[in-house]
Amino acid sequence: MKSLRHRLPTLTSLMAFEAAGRTLNFTQAAQELHVSQAAISKQIKYLEGYFGFALFERQGRKVSLSSRGLQFHNKINASFNFMADAVEEYLEDEDNSSVTVSANSAMSHYWLGNAINEFYRTHKKTPNIRVITSDITRDLFVDEVDIAIAYEPGQRIGWKTSFLFKEEMFPIASPDYLKTHPFLGNNPENLFKHELLDFERIEPNWMNWKAWFSELDINTDKLMINHRFNNYIVLIDSAKRGLGITLGTRYLIDSKLKEKQLIRLSDFSVLSGRSYWLALNESKPMNDNTRRFYDWLNHYQAMRE
Q1: Least CB-packed of 97, 99, 228, 288 within 10 Å?
Q2: At the topology level of CATH, where does 4-94 sit?
Q3: CA atoms within 13 A on the CB side of 224
Q4: 289 C-beta neighbours (distance < 10 Å), count
Q5: Among 3.40.190.10, 3.60.9.10, 3.40.50.1110, 3.40.30.10, what is the CATH number of 98-164+275-304?
Q6: pLDDT digits (tens, 9 = 90+) for 255-278
Q7: pTM reported for the whole predicted model
Q8: pLDDT per residue as tens digits for the range 130-162
Q9: 6-27 b/e with 16+ CB inside 10 Å = b?
């Protein structure tokens, strides 16, 4: 791959074009960039020669973007904003004002999302919480992360882990589904008569219906999965919409049960023997914001026990 220097026109010309296209005034763009109007005109002429088409339409002293110039300006504007956001993000990191947390998609969407909302609601001065999401455990333990919330992370060099909560799974369904497909009795095998929703296991230690029934010493020869998803969030949403019965994880879907969007079918459940853990990145200096949010996550879970 060629270097950016050989693939792009000069950065000076792009900045001049962005300012001129945004203000539609070469004089104002020059003032903004602390250069002369002639310098702006020179950079625009250079760019138009580089591309071989006009970026602006000129009517006397007034200028407007050509159709192709407008398309290019939209992309340049978005690119500069993206770069500015990246710079601001790392400036915030230098000021210790942001905390980066990683978790899998289900944990991020349900438990962590609620924890962050409560943190913002109950604390007056709060840092920016950045969330990195991945369903691959190793991706959660990267250098930029301050706190990882991981499902069975194992030993991680440079990370201090502490127990968060045990995984407990039980069947759940929407009120609408149960109106038309009532669950009768208190026998897990009765689930074989229902529409069962499941998800693809990205990692081998995740629990699905087959593993769940096996933990209860129930033969799975009659098990039939009616719909399978590759994302736990989509799976839960489908259950909420009445598509069938799926497995819910305690603490992750507690709010859905409380709001009656989903209903637990019976008292039977499975403790998988696996757990979620908090992990602190010991290779990064501990700052007050990281410590405060880490302590809050422990406190938030303790309130839910």
Answers
A1: 288
A2: Arc Repressor Mutant, subunit A (1.10.10)
A3: 7
A4: 19
A5: 3.40.190.10
A6: 999 999 999 998 889 999 999 999
A7: 0.68
A8: 999 999 999 999 999 999 999 999 889 999 999
A9: eeeeeeebbbbbbbbbbeebbe
